[in-house]
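Support reply, case 0932

Customer input (verbatim):
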Amino acid sequence: MLESIQKETSSRELPRVWLEALEETARDFYPKPKEFCRRAYEHATETWLRILEEEYGMVPDPASTIKEGVESHIKIGVEAGLFHDPGEFVLKEETPDKLNVTVVRCIYKKVCQDMVKEGFSVKNLTCPRIGCFRAAVLNLTGIDAHYEVTNFEEDGVCEGFIEAK
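Our regenerated output:
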């Protein structure tokens, strides 16, 4: 017997469905889906922050460093219901220009699992969480950075970094 899905759960699954579809489509058409996804994350993050401000009066904290940009994005993400709690992420500033990020519980782990099964190296994973954090850094600080996944575990723990170009 199937259990019914509560509306709150269902509404949280819809973005996951669209993100997985976007990433699968990028892999269908592009030999380097990370570049396509990087731009999609930028557009999505910019739109998300604009909607929060214009429609809900929620403005992220000012940020001037990579770490502050990610922390601000996480904070407003928790307030807006995008993330459950800030404990889902571990941030460690290696230098002011490089932030190590661990995603402890990722709802998008299936995307990465599929990519690894298809033969993608961990380095080439697109990582929606770290990718959107990089986009938030660009949006909130103006710092252009790149990101890379350095480790992915089947249980959904993902590690990587964001580094200024």
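We compared this against your earlier run and they match. Two observations from our side: The mean pLDDT is 89. DSSP finds five helices and four strands in the chain. Please reopen the case if you see a mismatch on your end.
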